[in-house]
Amino acid sequence: MKLHDIKPAPGSSRPKKRKGIGIxxxxxxxxxxxxxxxxxxxxxxxxxxxxxGQLPAVRKLPFVRGVGxxxxxxxxxxxxxxxxxxxxxxxxxEVNPDALIAAGLTHKSDKYIAILGNGDITVPLQVTAHxxxxxxxxxxxxxxxxxxxxxxxxxxxRTR
Length: 160
Description:
- With 160 residues, this protein is of the alpha/beta class.
- It has four helices and six strands, in the order αβαβαβββαβ.
């Protein structure tokens, strides 16, 4: 046995293709690069997002309206109208985010609750939420209920 007789185990590795070494291998002359053009020359392949000198789409994104910008500190509210509260809850009931979810008025527990003043309320309720419109606050208090605001922790990074 000599050094040139030593071979790896069958199927363990494949030899590297030696491009540009003679015509018999099928990879001679142009070595699989085709003829002429930028890609056929050494150092000719550009970055994946290169678009021939035009501003690449990736760099255009910040300027396209509504695309590319995401404010991580934006607070999303789930709106609930005063008229719906009057329909779903009885007099003297405590209305908080958990009660609203249980009543089916909001379906996402990860959002903050905003009470809006659309409609009328005659039932006195103890409403606890993250935000109130001025008209909603006035209508709830006029009906004999009370309003309590839940403080929002600022700086908490929320995802889309």
